[in-house]
Amino acid sequence: MARRFTDQQLRQLRNEVPFPWLLQRLAWPHRRRDGQLIFVCPRCGESRSDLNPQENLVRCFHCQTNFNPIDFTMAARDCGFVEAVQHLLSLTDRHQTH
Ligand SMILES: [Zn+2]
Asked: Helices marked H in 26-79 — which ranges?
């Protein structure tokens, strides 16, 4: 299968899509409390989670899963990698106005 995305595109999605923004765009249940980002884990359904802003990962403490923005989109939309990346690219296209 031909590669559809460049490494740079994938790196940008993993490193530069902010989770608070992503959760909002996915209309995914979440809230902020005392500086923490609490979301419903798409894998186990629990809300014991936090954001690691340095790594741009979110972690579920219940099922011990780390999600980057691509992983999270795959889990939240129950779709494959290619579809998740396409979805993220379309969201970020609309996000950037230039
Ligand atoms: Zn979980």
From this structure: 69-77
Distance 60 CA to ligand 1 centre (A): 5
- Main-chain dihedrals φ then ψ at residue 34, nearest 5 degrees: 50, 45
Distance 66 CA to ligand 1 centre (A): 9
Q: Is 71 helix (H, G, I), strand (E, B) or coil?
A: helix
How far is C-alpha 94 from the chain's CA centre? Answer: 16
Question: Between 3.90.580.10, 3.90.76.10, 3.40.50.720, 3.40.50.2300, what CATH number should domain 11-84 receive?
Answer: 3.90.580.10
Ligand 1 ion: nearby residues, β-carbon < 5 Å: 41, 43-44, 60, 62-63
Q: What burial letters (b/e) apply to 54-63, b meaning 16+ CB within 10 Å? A: eebbbbbeee
State pLDDT tens for residues 12-43: 999 999 999 999 999 999 998 887 889 999 99
